[in-house]
């Protein structure tokens, strides 16, 4: 694999909870630390552009993400993103020529024991290396066409539409 571009936008994967306030903040991106700890055999660059819950990501944020990805020379792109509006963001990224873009996130913060973050990141890394150019979502052990998936909030998982 050539160098992997990772663009982070926040979301649950990067959330830090504070027991005393029973509140959270979107913290530092966790993916670089996770990949370093796993000792991956590829080069990667992390560009943190947002630190937002995906419910707060707006059209201007999505255009910033699109422009950031389009401006970079790397062809393989992994985007960490909150799960609630991942599908909407994938639609905005569709049509960036010459790139394979995989969005992933977590239903539980990466800092939590038993988080799905590492599993989803691993799925996304495999997908971005093996799929043709286009935009995909890697969640719940599957790689999805963003036009054919939705988040089932009640069941807290992604499913086909």
Helix content: 25-40%
Structural class determined from secondary elements = alpha/beta
Measured between the Cα atoms of the first and last residue, the distance is 32 Å
Estimate the mean pLDDT confidence.
94
Biggest sheet, strands in spatial order?
4-1-5-6-7-8
Into which percentage range does the β-strand content fall? 25-35%
* CATH superfamily placement: L-asparaginase, N-terminal domain
Query: Can you identify the CATH class?
Result: Alpha Beta
- Assembly category: single chain
Kindly report the CATH topology. Answer: Rossmann fold
CATH architecture: 3-Layer(aba) Sandwich
Could you name the ranges where pLDDT drops below 50 across 5 or more consecutive residues? none
Q: How would you describe the shape?
A: globular
Described by strand count, sense and barrel closure, the largest sheet is: 6 strands, mixed
Taken in chain order, the helices and strands follow as: EEEHEHEHEHEEEE
Domain unit count: 1
Summed up, the helix count is 4
Give an overview of the whole structure.
The protein has a single domain, classed as Rossmann fold. 27% of the residues lie in helices and 32% in strands. The chain is built from four helices and ten strands. It has helices at residues 31-38, 59-71, 86-93, 117-130; strands at residues 4-10, 15-18, 23-26, 44-52, 76-80, 100-104, 134-139, 142-144, 149-152, 157-160. The protein has a six-stranded mixed beta sheet, with helices on both faces. Strands 2-3 form a two-stranded antiparallel sheet. It has a two-stranded antiparallel sheet with strand order 9-10. The radius of gyration is 15 Å and the shape is globular. 39% of the residues are buried.
């Amino acid at each position: 694999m050539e160098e992997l571009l990772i663009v982070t936008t926040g979301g649950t994967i990067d959330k830090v909870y504070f027991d005393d306030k029973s509140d959270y903040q979107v913290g530092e991106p966790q993916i670089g630390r996770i990949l370093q700890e796993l000792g991956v055999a590829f080069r990667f660059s992390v560009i943190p552009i947002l630190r937002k819950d995906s419910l707060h990501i707006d059209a201007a944020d999505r255009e910033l993400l699109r422009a950031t990805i389009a401006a970079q020379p790397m062809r393989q792109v992994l985007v960490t993103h909150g799960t609630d509006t991942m599908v909407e963001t994938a639609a905005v990224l569709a049509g960036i020529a010459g790139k394979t873009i995989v969005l992933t996130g977590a239903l539980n913060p990466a800092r939590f024991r038993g988080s799905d973050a590492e599993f989803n990141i691993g799925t996304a890394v495999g997908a971005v290396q093996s799929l043709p150019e286009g935009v995909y979502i890697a969640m719940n052990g599957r790689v999805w066409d963003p036009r054919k998936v939705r988040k089932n909030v009640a069941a807290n998982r992604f499913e086909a539409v």
